[in-house]
């Protein structure tokens, strides 16, 4: 049985959110939607405050549509684990991964040469696995996080938000595969894997295998007409389906995914299963080698 939150707590949460969105306060947040669900799919709290964006006069509401950016990665990981369950790929089978993503064979590692500051590309010491892609240990980064990668890409530069696949597949690694955790474009590669295995766009796969079974209607790489009317950010007209950060969604729909994962892969609302227990355990298991944990914490 799912018990409601105490009314005092609800009022306190609402007050905190309103205070964060107060336009009379410096460094306020333009708008917020906060939703809390449990493993039974019960909505414990839902509240919106502020406006849809900087300079916007349109009030934020719980049905507003957001660019959910890197929250897309969670859904891409679900898709990849579904393919693992079907026996189409293995988390540690580097040969199968390279057969589907042959571009990974030739990707090299970016290094900086001593005092000269010159860049050079050196061969990989080991091959990349799907597990590495999903745990951010493949060696990829983001140019806006990694100074050397940013400088190497000049004068044109890599723009991971351009919507062009070339800004992803032309990037070198910044570490040897498996050597270090680094947040980067590896989930875009994982998304391309799903597309090539299933011979359909990532958006089509998400809709068919994740969104429809969970009753999700307001989540897409390309917002529908009704979603566009509720956007809190500018729509991207054309882009490849970025498994690392391309989705738009209503917060309540994203919470349907969270409650399903909390319920061991079974939707508490529709009764559809999207992942088996083994995959859920894998999803919630630390994948970062012990030798790298201290570096991540630092």
TrEMBL record:
Q: Which domain of life is it from?
A: Eukaryota
* InterPro entries attached to this UniProt entry: Beta-lactam-related, Beta-lactam/transpept-like, Diverse_Enzym_Activities
Residues of the Beta-lactamase-related domain? 25-273
Q: List, alphabetically, the PANTHER family matched.
A: BETA-LACTAMASE FAMILY PROTEIN (AFU_ORTHOLOGUE AFUA_5G07500) (PTHR43283:SF3), BETA-LACTAMASE-RELATED (PTHR43283)
Question: By what name is this protein known?
Answer: Beta-lactamase-related domain-containing protein
Organism whose genome encodes this protein: Aspergillus cristatus
């Amino acid at each position: 049985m799912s018990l409601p939150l105490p009314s005092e707590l609800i009022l306190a949460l609402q007050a905190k959110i309103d205070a964060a969105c107060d336009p009379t306060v410096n460094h306020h947040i333009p708008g917020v939607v906060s939703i809390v669900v449990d493993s039974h799919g019960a909505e414990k709290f839902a509240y919106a405050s502020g406006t849809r964006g900087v300079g916007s006069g349109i009030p934020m509401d719980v049905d507003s549509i957001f660019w959910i950016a890197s929250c897309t990665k969670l859904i891409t990981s679900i898709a990849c684990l579904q393919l693992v369950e079907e026996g189409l790929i293995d988390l540690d089978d580097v040969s199968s991964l390279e057969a589907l993503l042959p571009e990974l064979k030739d990707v090299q590692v970016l290094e900086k040469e001593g005092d000269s500051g010159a860049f050079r590309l050196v061969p990989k010491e080991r091959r990349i696995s799907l597990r590495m892609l999903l745990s951010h240990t493949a060696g990829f980064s983001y140019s806006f996080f990694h100074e050397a990668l940013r400088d190497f890409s000049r004068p044109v530069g890599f723009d991971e938000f351009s919507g062009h696949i070339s800004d992803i597949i032309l990037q070198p690694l910044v570490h040897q595969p498996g050597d270090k955790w680094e947040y980067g474009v590896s989930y875009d590669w994982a998304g391309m894997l799903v597309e090539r295995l299933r011979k359909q766009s990532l958006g089509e796969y998400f809709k068919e295998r994740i969104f429809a079974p969970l009753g999700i209607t307001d989540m897409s790489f390309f917002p529908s007409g009704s979603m566009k009317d509720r956007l809190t950010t500018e729509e991207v007209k054309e882009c490849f389906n970025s498994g690392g950060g391309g989705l738009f969604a209503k917060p309540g729909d994203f919470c349907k995914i969270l409650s399903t994962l909390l319920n061991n892969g079974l939707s508490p609302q529709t009764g559809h299963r999207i992942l088996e227990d083994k995959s859920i355990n894998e999803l919630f298991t630390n994948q970062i080698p012990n030798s790298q944990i201290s570096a991540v914490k630092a």
